[in-house]
Amino acid sequence: NLECKFCPQHILPEHIVKKNMDLDTFKKLIDDIKLFKTKPKVMRFCGLGDPLFNKKFLEILEYAAKSKAIEKLELITNGILLNDNLISNIVHYLDRIIISIEGLSSEDYKNFTLRNVDFEKFVKKIEILSKKKSKSKIHAKIHNSAVQTNERKELFFKTFSKIVDEIYI
């Protein structure tokens, strides 16, 4: 949903396989993990493209959580696809939600990601996510190229530090 200039999908799109894992394959993966002698410490949903693109993501997440096969579940997302349904559900299953912030304004998003993003609406989504969280920690991170000056660093921290649990550049 974004085309970040620094992402491999933008740099070498012909070398990227753009397919979602299907639910049956994921269930087999979890069932196989349950056979391990010790639980893996973390399963992180991330990769090339936002995991929220997968229409079965909530089912996948729920299966992983209910299996208790992994100690912690984490998600890395750009947050653009968050909606009321996702927000209301993922907070019950994920231990950590890492949101990749790609700019500090709608203009930044257009410049860095080649997409139109209503930045104020985006920040409000993260505020809603933060208010609805139960066990999840919300983490915001930004690429250093988006905060080259002290003023931009301060703006990043001012915008997000009150609505997330962890923050870094």
Compact description:
With 169 residues, this protein is of the alpha/beta class. It has helices spanning 8-11, 23-33, 57-67, 84-93, 106-113, 119-132, 150-160; strands at 42-45, 72-77, 96-101, 137-142, 166-168. It has 7 helices and 5 strands.
What features would you describe in this structure?
By secondary structure, the chain is an alpha/beta fold. 41% of the residues lie in helices and 15% in strands. The chain contains seven helices and five strands. β1, α3 and β2 (72-77) form a beta-alpha-beta unit. The longest helix has 14 residues, at 119-132. It is globular, with a radius of gyration of 17 Å. The two termini are 22 Å apart. 24% of the residues are buried. The model has no long low-confidence stretch (mean pLDDT 90).
**Rg calc:** 17 Å
Q: Averaging pLDDT over every residue, what do you get?
A: 90
Sheet bearing the most strands, described?
5 strands, parallel
* Global structural class: alpha/beta
Distance between the termini: 22 Å
The total strand number stands at: 5
In which range does the helix fraction lie?
A: 40-55%
The general outline is globular
Per DSSP, what share of the residues sits in E-state strands of 2 or more residues? 5-15%
Please, how many helices? 7
**Element-level helix/strand string:** HHEHEHEHHEHE
